[in-house]
# Entry
Amino acid sequence: MQRRDLAEGPTFLVWVRGLTGPQPQLWGEDAFYGPVAERERVVLAVRALRREEAGMPLRELAARYPAPEG
# Structure
């Protein structure tokens, strides 16, 4: 997902199950709509970001809020 404009609404750091392990992604509020059952299999953790965090690089956010263990 590309960096979101803060005026577009809330931004979330989402850890998903990737082919090589947990992968961080930035999601907007609209990404949570749709087939819930499929997302439940791949979503590991969700964290709502503060406005000042929404513009940070994904690498920094992933270091600040690491993937859940297990």
Notes: Residues 52 and 65 are 15 Å apart (CA to CA).
